[in-house]
Amino acid sequence: MKIGLLTSGGDCPGLNAVIRGAVLKGVISHDAEFVGFRKGWKGVVEGDFMPIERHDVRGLSKQGGTILGSSRTNPFEGEGGGPENIQRMLDENGIDAIIAIGGEGTLTAARRLTDAGLNIVGVPKTIDNDLAATDYSFGFDTAVEIATEAIDRLRTTAESHGRCIVVEVMGRHVGWIALHSGMAGGAHAILIPEQPQSIDQICEWVESVRDRGRAPLVVVAEGFHLTDMEEAHSHKGLDAFNRPRLGGIAERLAPMIEERTGIESRDTVLGHIQRGGAPSAYDRVLATRLGMAAIDAVYARAWGSMVTLRGTDIKTVSIAEAVGTLNVVPDARYDEARILFG
Fold first, then answer.
1. 170 appears as a binding residue in the annotation
2. Which residues bind ATP (predicted)?
3. Residue 337 in domain
4. 91 and 8 housed in the same domain
5. Over 70: is that where the pLDDT of 223 sits?
6. Range of the domain at 121
7. Which H helix or E strand runs over 211?
8. Residue 331 domain-assigned?
């Protein structure tokens, strides 16, 4: 069997480990042949791919980024887009199936293409941990480690100047990165999309910290919005899937906090640093296991399915189950952290 691999959407630590796990399992167990589509769905639409041999994935699990490149291309657009054109390209090149490694947008596209008859298996990828049907996705652990280290560093400069620091982390419409890094870094307030807060409540937490002689540190997820805001802050337009590009809420909150409390405040947006660098050991192992399981799903002809982590076991579920709802932070988890605020 000839299998095409693609990595689409935002880059993520562990993508190369998935590729390595899939290729090694496919070659060793099934004598499979592999190609890699360049730049995600863009390579599929344009028929741009390269062969991937066993020696190409040697030592790849520790490498960040993706050797295939990525993009936010919509496979239903463009001259070569749409299920009929894509299937024609696959047939002409003898490619029997696609393993699509990506997040919500990538997997939604994969589901639509599978519904149209294409042979596709999905692998969940997102640092945001926002995909339902999987307990954790690879890349999340690495992003939390990076954010936690940044929080530790920012705490020292905040204490030196007696400033309030507002740290913005990624996460889109869920607050998992903020929750975990905030708890690990000892944040005095954690602001997540699932739990809108008023500016008065935020300032109350900040002032409580100041009154105890400490420098307040607030961690905010990019998708957080105040109670008087209708939606998350976005001023960067839309992506290829017509989703708003989030970011910048920390830049709004810091001056509001300073104005109301009189505490000198600064904002720091971590941005894409959370996606960069080598994946953690946990993410390398999880990504490798998911890549190997994706090969099993291909040979089981489980088209339209996605490999997933349930507890410590790798399972297979339908892609529709994964993209239908967000994996949001439960109220109970936020209530745990809230005890530590102020």
1. yes
2. 10, 72-73, 103-106
3. no
4. yes
5. yes
6. 2-138+279-323
7. helix 199-211
8. no
User: Judging by DSSP bridges, how do beta strands 217-221 and 164-169 pair with one another?
Assistant: parallel
Tens-digit pLDDT profile for residues 81-136: 999 999 999 999 999 999 999 988 899 999 999 999 999 999 999 999 998 889 99
Residues 115 and 156 in one domain: no
Asked whether residue 152 falls in the same domain as residue 42, the answer is: no
Tell whether residue 36 is among the known ligand binding residues. Answer: no
Q: Is 267 a catalytic residue?
A: no
Query: pTM for the complete prediction?
Result: 0.92
* Residue 134, marked binder: no
Distance CA 320, CA 38 (A): 25
**Mean pLDDT for all residues in the chain:** 94
103 marked as binding residue: yes
Residue 335 among known ligand-binding residues? no
Q: Is residue 332, in this structure, part of any structural domain at all? A: no
Closest CA to 196 of 243, 229, 234, 244: 229
CATH of the domain at 125: 3.40.50.450
Residue 340 lies in a domain: no
Top-confidence residue, 172 or 2: 2
pLDDT at 240: 56
Give the active site residue among 128, 130, 141, 283. 128
Pick from 342, 271, 308, 294: nearest CA to 19: 294
pLDDT (0 to 100) of residue 65: 93
Average pLDDT over every residue of 201-226: 96
Neighbours of 341 (CB within 10 A): 20
